[in-house]
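Hi R.,

Here's the chain you asked about this morning:
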Amino acid sequence: MNIDTNTIVAMTEANQNFSKVTRLVEEEGMAVIMKNNKPRYVVVDFEEYDFIAAARQLRKERIDKLADEVIEENLEALMELAK
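And the predicted structure, written out as tokens:
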């Protein structure tokens, strides 16, 4: 994942100056909080979060549907293995 260096904030700085984090979210659309020199948290505005949550739900539904199809297609074999 590529991270825009303009959105990076150290954990210590985020703790001491959270208004900087919110300003970055307003200006750049997100803030990436680093912990131990690794990206650890992403702060986004609530509209972006809604979009992300909807995409995650759609992905979960697709995976569930595919899993159901695989089980249905292989039910006989699965029942035999369950014996």
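The chain has a mean pLDDT of 94.

Let me know if you need anything else.
M.
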